[in-house]
Amino acid sequence: MNAALDQIRSYMSAHDFDAALRSIEELENESGDSPRLLVWKAGCLQLSDRGTPEEVERMLLRAVELDEEYVPALVELGWFRLNVQDDAAGAKQAFDRARELLKKQIGETYRGALACAQELRSSQSLSAFQPEFERDLLENLKYDVRRERPAG
After folding, report:
1. DSSP letter at 127?
2. Which of 13, 27, 90, 143 could anchor a disulfide with 81, C-beta 3.0 to 4.6 Å?
3. Rounded distance between C-alpha atoms, residue 137 and residue 125, angstroms
4. pTM of the predicted model as reported, rounded to 2 decimal places
5. Contact call for residues 6 and 20 (beta carbons, < 8 A)
6. Which residues on neighbouring strands pair with residue 150, listed in sequence order?
7. Residue ranges of domains in the chain
């Protein structure tokens, strides 16, 4: 399965969305729906102009239904609602849910890194991690004005 996912990523990176769609559909036939495949399929349909907005929305909603905590599905649903459906309120709901989940994950990651530093008795003081952590968060909030999306 990893090889198939790598192949799909390769097709998508090369902007060969038709080949990516074929591979996604083959994988779906073998293993069924997955949030990741549905998000990728929705993106490929949009970028290849093969899918309808209704079909894309249905896939994104199904991805969220399968895993309400799958952040990439919520983010893509947010962008779809904002840019395709012109539904800022609906987009905000999706982005807010994704942000809440990410805050939880980031907090766990930070606590884990601190616990590791304590366990390893790092010469670097634990308080030194805080500025690094805050810098990483701020880096992710910078916007690429040309694309109107977060940079990175």
Report:
1. G
2. 90
3. 20
4. 0.79
5. no
6. 143
7. 2-150
C-alpha gyration radius of the chain: 19
- Give me the CATH topology for the region 2-150: 1.25.40
Residue in this structure with the two tokens 């090369």, named with its chain if needed: 14
Which residue shows structure tokens 């601190």?
Answer: 114
Residue 143 sits at φ, ψ, to 5 deg, of: -110, 140
Count the residues in the chain.
152
For residue 65 the two structure tokens come to 């239904």
Alpha-helical segments (H) within 67-128: 71-83, 88-120
CA dihedral 130, 132, 138, 139 (to 10 degrees): -170
Do the beta carbons of residue 79 and residue 67 sit within 8 Å?
no
Per-residue pLDDT of the chain (152 residues), as tens digits, is: 789 999 999 999 999 999 999 999 999 999 999 999 999 999 999 998 888 999 999 999 999 999 999 999 999 999 999 999 999 999 999 999 999 999 899 888 888 887 887 777 665 556 666 677 777 767 766 644 334 444 43
**Maximum alpha-carbon separation in the chain:** 56
Task: Give me 14's structure tokens.
Answer: 């090369």
